[in-house]
């Protein structure tokens, strides 16, 4: 295995990880920012007001993108398994 092949595999793995995590985290961050601006504007300091919308949006993001996430991870795994003979030999 050459260092270039290892770097290519590592780069592909990081790309899959960043895509999968960003699909889940970014909607929660956006909703958290909106709720924080609302709380600052109205001086409401309720913890559940910031937690519950983020939780719901994260669950909805998982629900709507779950199939794509699993398919992306499966495609990457199959690509890695198919790559074994060329990397080892």
Structural overview:
There is one protein chain. This protein is mainly α. It is 92% helix and 0% strand. The chain has one domain (18-88). It has helices at residues 3-42, 47-88. Helix 1 (3-42) runs antiparallel to helix 2.
Concise structural overview:
The protein is mostly helical. Helices cover 92% and strands 0% of the residues.
Any key phrases for this structure?
0% strand, mainly alpha, 92% helix, 89 residues
How are the secondary structure elements laid out?
Layout lengths: L2 H40 L4 H42 L1
Helix pairs in contact: 1-2
What is the end-to-end distance? 8 Å
Assign a percent range to the helix content: over 70%
Number of helical stretches of at least 4 residues = 2
Q: Categorize the overall geometry.
A: elongated
Q: Kindly state the number of beta strands.
A: 0
Helix-strand makeup class: mainly alpha
- Following the backbone from N to C, one meets helices and strands in this order, namely HH
Task: Estimate nothing, just give the exact number of structural domains.
Answer: 1
Beta content: under 5%
Largest sheet: none
Rounded mean pLDDT is 91
Measured on Cα atoms, how large is the radius of gyration? 19 Å
Note poorly predicted spans. Answer: none
């Amino acid at each position: 295995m050459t260092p270039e092949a290892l770097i290519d595999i590592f780069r592909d793995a990081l790309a899959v990880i960043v895509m999968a995590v960003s699909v889940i985290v970014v909607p929660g961050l956006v909703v958290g920012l909106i709720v924080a601006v609302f709380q600052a504007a109205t001086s409401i300091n309720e913890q559940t007001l910031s937690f519950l919308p983020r939780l719901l949006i994260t669950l909805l993001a998982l629900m709507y993108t779950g199939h794509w996430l699993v398919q992306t991870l499966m495609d990457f795994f199959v690509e890695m398994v198919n790559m074994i003979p060329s990397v080892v030999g």
